[in-house]
Structures are given as C-alpha cells and as structure tokens.
Amino acid sequence: MSNGGGLLQGLFISFEGIDGAGKSTHINGLAQAFRAQGRVVTLTREPGGTPLAETLRAMVLNDAMDAMTEALLVFAARRDHLRQVIEPALAQDQVVLCDRFTDATFAYQGGGRGFDLGLLSVLERMVQTTSIDTADLVRQPDVTVWFDLPAEIAAQRLAGTRVPDKFEAQPVEFFRRVSDGYRQRMLESPARFARIDANQTREAVWRDVLAALQGRACLA
Ligand code: TMP
Q1: Which of 44, 100, 145, 157, when mutated, tests ligand 1's pocket best, judged by the most ligand atoms within 8 Å of its CB?
Q2: The domain 2-215: what is its CATH number?
Q3: Is the peptide bond before 47 cis (omega within 30 degrees of 0)?
Q4: Is 78 near ligand 1, meaning CB less than 6 Å away?
Q5: Mean pLDDT value across residues 71-82
Q6: 128 in Cβ contact with 102 (< 8 Å)
Q7: Is residue 49 left, alpha or beta, with left meaning phi > 0 and alpha meaning psi from -120 to 50?
Q8: pLDDT digits (tens, 9 = 90+) for 159-176
Q9: Above 60 in pLDDT, residue 93?
Q10: Tell me, what's the pLDDT at 3?
Q11: Which of 26, 46, 59 has the most ligand 1 atoms within 8 A of CB, as the residue to mutate?
C-alpha cells in the first residue's frame, strides 16, 4: 500500500460477494481508475488466474464432488495462482485486483457447504505462506471489498440471465449461508473488510466503492 511518502508499493485487493452481487463492472472500473493514476494493474480471479488454476476452476464449477474435494481443489488453484501471478506482481509493486480469494472458500465451502472451518484455516495458513523466509507471514489481501446483497435479490437478478453453473444453481438458502460466512469473516478481520451495500443503483455502489478505497488511501 502507499506509505504516505509517495512510494508506491504492491497493493492486493480482493472482491467478494454472492453470485449476482454485481462486482464485475466495478472491478473493471477500478482497474481503469488505478491505471489512470499510473499504476500497473494485474486483473485476475479465483478459482483461476493461471492455466492450471483455470483447469481446476472448470472442474470445481461443473463437476460433482464432495465438499472436501472442492476445498482442496480451490486451495490447490490458489497456491498456483499465488506463486505464479499474485506474489510476482506484488513484488513488482503492482496493484492486484482479484475477483474472489480465500474469503470465498470460507463463505461457499464453509458457510454454504458446511465444511469444517478449522480445516479451512489450516489450509489457508499452509497455502498462503509462499516463502520460507517469511514463514510466519500468511498472505492476505490488503483490502477486501465485500458486495453485500440479500440472497433473495441476488436470485432475482440472476434468474434467466445465463445457464447457471453448479453454484449459481443452488437454492436461496445456500446463499444465505454463504452471506453469513462472509459476515463472519468480516467480524474476524474488520480492518481488512470494506462492506458495500450492493442493494443500490450501480452508480451508488460505484460511489461507495471509490469512497471505501479513497478512505483507505489506496486511490487518490
Ligand atoms: P465467479 O462466478 O464469481 O467467477 O465465481 C466462481 C464460483 O466459484 C462462485 O460461485 C463462487 C465459487 N467459489 C467457491 O466456491 N470457492 C472459492 O474458494 C472461490 C474462489 C469461488
């Protein structure tokens, strides 16, 4: 993050929310805003972001599997993504805008599927420690922008828009549990989270996203 003295350091921002919460246009808008301020931006997503991780993404989104297999595959994808894309970009002082990260695993596999949160925490610590020199540094986003939208409204927005993947086809109760999972993660790391009320016009959401990042001195 900016250190206040004008030197620009790597900045890692993740974007979260239930399916239908409307994060994509804002992520693209932020990439433009950072580039307009002279920053080099890496725009990426999870699961995905490398050839291997994109292959794992297709499996996770389309193939039937139990919750543990799902969790292991998203963390395997994350490990490759961190090593190949995120850590190198941060080492070059880039801005990394990542459409979903580990909070999604706690929300979807933990909240949605009911998978063991303690085991997810163990995997989080192992997977996000990427250098033996910094063994006690577990990589986390500097800021997580959470687009918070009631599950019922997200379901209305998604209805009929496209062929749903495995997650988008879940009932509204699943997404209520996913939302609860995100809320729990925010309670555990309140300084990292910027909660945005996504139940507003696109313009109002954009204004709030900009204000949240400006308030944290990420954007001028
Ligand atoms: P997307 O449609 O926003 O790209 O997200 C892909 C789907 O994968 C979305 O339904 C959430 C889900 N997902 C998980 O279940 N666990 C994870 O760790 C991540 C990153 C995504």
Answers
A1: 100
A2: 3.40.50.300
A3: yes
A4: no
A5: 98
A6: yes
A7: left
A8: 877 788 999 999 999 999
A9: yes
A10: 44
A11: 46
